[in-house]
Amino acid sequence: MEFGMNRRGFLGLAAAGSLLAQDTRGSSGAAVSSLAAGSGARPALLGGTPVRTRSWPVWPVFDSSEERHLQDVLASGKWFRGYGDKVAKFEEAYARLTGAKHCLATANGTSALLTSMAVLDVGPGDEVILPPYTFVATVNVILMHHALPVFVDSHLESFQIDPAKIDKAVTDRTVLLMPVHIAGLPADIDRILEVARARKLPVLEDACQAHLAEWRGRKVGTYGRAGCFSFQASKHLNAGEGGAIISDDEEFIENCFTFHNNSRSRKTAPGNAGFAYSPRAGANLRLTEFQGNLLLAQMVRLDEQSRTREENAGYLASMLSRIPGITPARLHEGATRAAYHLFMFRYEKVAFSGLARNGFLKALTAEGIPCSSGYRPLNKEPFIQMALQSRGYRRIYPKDLLEGWLERNACPQNDLLCEQAVWFSQNMLLGSRSDMDQIAEAIGKIQKHAGELART
To answer: Residues 79, 126: one domain?
Structure first.
């Protein structure tokens, strides 16, 4: 697995940003060492004063511009995309932003994936390859098409799908590779596409958390047959709910439009004459005019906010990498920009006097640094087994294939990742440099007193 320096992504923070991808001994060592050593103060859980008492940046960010955009749609009386033009304008703007030729807005990121898979003719009897370290929607859409999910283990350092293990997971039933740019960190697109070309398989990029992320200077989501994005409330581009499909394939996008529009093509969509239906089944997965115009307002801040996250992530990683037992997620060599929907790192309790991760999370939260443990092993979720043992799946797939599914989908590296991962949310990265200092200070304080914390 190759990693390298992210030169474009950190805007002058080359010394700090490169620490995500290589050794972290740099010129800022004195300041970092001071923070990592922790102050003499006791942790908040042991009666000390929290490192931070101020609130973190709030999300979403909005002002009177969003109010005007919503009011404009309200006053127009054209709330549905078939009658207004706001969704179409957003689609044009988002296509330009990503460098894609075409964009289709959808009700949410899940429906973008669902629609794309329908047009790619994923269905009963098929297998779809995906990573186990991802949001549940990635596997749900596979199950909704009655296909068989096949998990490929994670790579610890990157938190991404391990491309070296993809080829061995391909069978004669495999119809799709679905990598995920989790947390906005680009997956290794080069090696994924290498397998896809050799096996003659389409690639659908789940870029739902990766707005503006880039691989070799080109936006993620533009490498596969299509890329899917989410505009749910926590995302960098936020309409409460919403999604998009981008592609350079016009026929593909037109088929996606028909599917997401209840089997009606653009020629027979509401606002046009006729009620002719496509031979392809469909669903109502459209975005509203309110959301389309809200996204146009939100897009104005997207690049600046993303740059702030990148800078803070690079600086924070440069400090945390110097604390024993703390390993920030690393970028692949080809990643020229990361979106940082999350800041993720691995926590190894052996460097913290055996303090369990839950104890670490509790202590860090008490210091005023909100954090979480992230995803559980998705391949082990009971609902998947329930689906595979359903009447429909038992009619579609051979008994031995279903009975051997758990063993085939074992992901030991991902199990370890799920035991060690710690997350900070994207709004924290919109703070100041001193906010990042406080995170490192709090972790250093906890490490200094980890033995005592482990005994409480």
So the answer is: yes
For the segment 407-448, what is each residue's pLDDT rounded down to a tens digit?
Answer: 999 999 999 999 999 999 999 999 999 999 999 999 999 999
CA 121 to chain centre: 24
Cβ–Cβ under 8 Å, residues 220 and 227: yes
Contacts of 153 (CB under 8 A, 6+ apart): 132, 161, 162, 165, 411, 412, 413, 414
Rounded CA separation 180/207 (Å): 6
Q: What is the pLDDT of residues 91-133, one digit of tens each?
A: 999 999 999 999 999 999 999 999 999 999 999 999 999 999 9
Residues 55, 70 within the same domain: no
Supply the CATH number for residue 357's domain: 3.90.1150.10
Residues 249 and 289 placed together within one structural domain of the fold: yes
CA–CA separation, 7 and 413 (whole Å): 29
Q: Does 383 fall in a domain?
A: no
Q: How far is CA 321 from CA 122, 135, 315, 449, in A?
A: 42, 26, 10, 19
Using only C-alpha atoms, the chain has a radius of gyration, in whole angstroms, of: 23
- Three-state secondary structure along 20-70? HCCCCCCCCHHHHHHHHCCCCCCCHHHCCCCCCCCCCCCCCCCCHHHHHHH
pTM of the predicted protein model: 0.92
Q: Which domain holds residue 344?
A: 14-59+300-374+416-455
